[in-house]
């Protein structure tokens, strides 16, 4: 048995609180001071490294140690807080770098990002012009708050208002979509003098105590009082009782106002394409009909554009425009900042005036760095004509996916607009039975093939394709080919619980299924650490940083067995 203490780099492991023990072809890691033991075989370790025949033992160890240390920290300090997002979670993926529509894990493996950090990276990961704006503003002034005047905030507010139709001209900056929807609901209640809010079933509007009330997916709702919220029938063309007939769903809203409220409501909130709910587009014309009813009942209409805004739908800049309706309040976040913590509420001067009765204040809302970044996002989207691009690439993607639907029974529905696309998987097209287990397997299989998508819908059986807007037709083709391949392999099995990994002819040729004896020899007999990273120039920045640490290790050090 060899323990990590015999290795020079064991110092790093030891200070990180990790023992590594190699026993034959298996190894285990023991975390000091915790009961956690993470047993792992050598080939499992190597699965975390791309193309193991090309990597050297030391690089493998560096990657593995880093991975396990990270896993340990997540398990101890973070997992309880992120477990609720398990419908979209890649628990085994450590993403360390991003470039436009691509992400890299710590072993340097590249992934096509078709989910954009949950529809957030609008222009592309680390887009150079957005980075420049953030860095330049950070050098001048990071924080001031809106108690002072500042050009970045004013310029951003003006630019954002210029993108809005009608009299939507007053902008409140916040830090997230949840905050934006909280504020919008507050405005609706204050302005209307009523309490009741109407929201759609299958909606997601946030995770705070207030917005959980608006959200209507049991997977995201804690059992707390949700206030006076009325969840009406979802005008879902695929699963809804009335198909695409907006007038029937709208009539149900009127019934609800007449029978389930005092006749007066504070407001109505809806996404135009439900994101978390699985890229469900509302029946055409629905919003216009419902906005009229809600206004007649004294309420205001809120469009949640957290996912659908900024040209992603291709045909329009805002999702509500696809329904020919103009809301009274628009909430936005995610794509507005390309990854910066930023959100906004835009409303009319009339509604904003009720907020002036008290002090409405948000310490970081309108932060100069986020404002400079947000303004850069708007400029990049215009300069790079991303709305048109989303339309072109989106039609190509949806076209190819629709063809794939003809080939594979499991694809029950392909829907969406621009680069906001959903693929709903079912085990029975007629019954529309959610293919929950199959979706989970395909999700992992796509990851192995280098494609990251999102999962959504109440049953987690919808793939959500919402990439950075620079995603191109080649990327779309790669995604569809990968999905085609993965589904073909899945359908080659008739197990109750399909396991793509057990397919002997799977696409796993780049991943080891057995320990390669040569590699094992290389691992244990590794001569020097200088030869460890021959292709250093090709490695992403994170890996280079890693190498520097390892280069501190004396050269020509022999591993003694
Ligand atoms: C439509 C919609 N609204 C609101 C939110 C909440 O945004 P945040 O997570 O930034 O609070 C989300 C988040 O996924 C969302 O998709």
Automatic annotation (TrEMBL):
GO cellular component: mitochondrion
EC number from the UniProt entry: 2.6.1.44
Protein family per UniProt: Belongs to the class-III pyridoxal-phosphate-dependent aminotransferase family.
Summary of subunit composition and partner proteins: Homotetramer.
Protein name stated in the entry: alanine--glyoxylate transaminase
PANTHER family: ALANINE--GLYOXYLATE AMINOTRANSFERASE 2, MITOCHONDRIAL, PTHR45688
Record pathway: Cofactor biosynthesis; (R)-pantothenate biosynthesis; (R)-pantoate from 3-methyl-2-oxobutanoate: step 1/2
Catalytic activity: (6R)-5,10-methylene-5,6,7,8-tetrahydrofolate + 3-methyl-2-oxobutanoate + H2O = 2-dehydropantoate + (6S)-5,6,7,8-tetrahydrofolate; glyoxylate + L-alanine = glycine + pyruvate
Record's keyword terms, sorted: Aminotransferase, Mitochondrion, Photorespiration, Pyridoxal phosphate, Transferase, Transit peptide
EC top class, as a word: transferase
Organism: Camellia sinensis var. sinensis
Principal location: mitochondrion
Cofactor needs: pyridoxal 5'-phosphate
GO molecular function: 3-methyl-2-oxobutanoate hydroxymethyltransferase activity; alanine-glyoxylate transaminase activity; pyridoxal phosphate binding
Subcellular location(s) of the protein: Mitochondrion
UniProt cross-references to Pfam families, sorted A to Z: Aminotran_3 (PF00202), Pantoate_transf (PF02548)
GO biological process, one term: pantothenate biosynthetic process
């Amino acid at each position: 048995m060899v323990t990590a203490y015999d290795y020079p780099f064991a110092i790093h492991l030891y200070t990180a609180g990790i023992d590594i023990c190699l026993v034959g072809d298996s190894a285990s890691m023991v975390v000091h001071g915790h009961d956690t033991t993470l047993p792992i075989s050598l080939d499992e370790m190597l699965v975390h490294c791309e193309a193991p025949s090309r990597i050297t033992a030391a690089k493998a160890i560096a990657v593995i140690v880093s991975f396990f240390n990270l896993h340990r920290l997540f398990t101890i300090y973070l997992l309880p807080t992120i477990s609720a997002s398990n419908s979209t979670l890649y628990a085994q993926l450590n993403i360390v770098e991003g470039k436009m529509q691509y992400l890299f894990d710590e072993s340097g493996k590249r992934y096509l990002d078709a989910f954009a950090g949950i529809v957030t990276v609008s222009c592309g990961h680390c887009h150079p012009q957005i980075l420049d704006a953030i860095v330049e503003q950070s050098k001048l002034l990071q924080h001031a708050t809106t108690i002072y005047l500042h050009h970045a905030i004013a310029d951003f507010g003006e630019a954002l208002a210029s993108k809005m139709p009608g009299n939507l001209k007053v902008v409140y900056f916040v830090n997230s979509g949840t905050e934006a929807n909280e504020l919008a609901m507050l405005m609706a209640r204050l302005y209307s003098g009523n309490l009741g809010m109407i929201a759609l079933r299958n909606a997601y509007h946030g995770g705070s105590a207030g917005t959980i009330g608006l959200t209507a997916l049991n997977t995201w709702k804690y059992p707390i009082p949700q206030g006076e919220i009325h969840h009406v029938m979802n005008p879902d063309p695929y699963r809804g009782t009335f198909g695409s007939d907006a007038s029937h769903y709208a009539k149900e809203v009127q019934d609800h106002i007449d029978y389930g409220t005092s006749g007066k409501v504070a407001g109505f909130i809806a996404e135009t394409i439900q994101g978390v709910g699985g890229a469900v587009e509302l029946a055409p014309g629905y919003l216009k009909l419902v906005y009229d009813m809600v206004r007649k009942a004294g309420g205001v209409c809120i469009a949640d554009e957290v996912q659908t805004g900024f040209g992603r739908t291709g045909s329009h800049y805002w999702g509500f425009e696809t329904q020919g309706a103009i809301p009274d309040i628009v909430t936005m976040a995610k794509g507005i900042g390309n990854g910066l913590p930023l959100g906004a509420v835009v409303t009319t001067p009339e509604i904003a005036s009720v907020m002036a009765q008290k002090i409405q204040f948000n310490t970081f809302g309108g932060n100069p760095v986020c404002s400079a970044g947000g303004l850069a996002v708007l400029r990049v989207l215009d300069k790079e004509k991303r709305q048109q691009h989303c339309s072109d690439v989106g039609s190509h993607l949806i076209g190819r996916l629709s063809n794939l639907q003809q080939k594979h029974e499991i694809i029950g529905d392909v829907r969406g607009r621009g680069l906001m696309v959903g693929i709903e998987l079912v085990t029975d097209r007629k019954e529309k039975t959610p293919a929950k287990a199959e979706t989970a397997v395909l999700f992992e299989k796509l990851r192995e093939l280098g494609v990251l998508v999102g999962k959504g819908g109440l049953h987690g059986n919808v793939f959500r394709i919402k990439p950075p807007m620079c995603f191109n037709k080649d990327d779309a083709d790669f995604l569809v080919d990968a999905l085609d391949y993965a589904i073909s392999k899945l359908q080659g099995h008739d197990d109750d619980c399909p396991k793509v990994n057990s397919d002997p002819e799977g696409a796993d040729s780049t991943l080891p299924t057995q320990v390669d004896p040569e590699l094992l020899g290389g691992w244990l007999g590794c001569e020097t650490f200088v030869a460890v990273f021959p292709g250093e120039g090709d490695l992403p920045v994170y890996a280079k940083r890693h190498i520097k640490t390892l280069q501190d290790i004396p050269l020509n050090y022999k591993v003694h067995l």
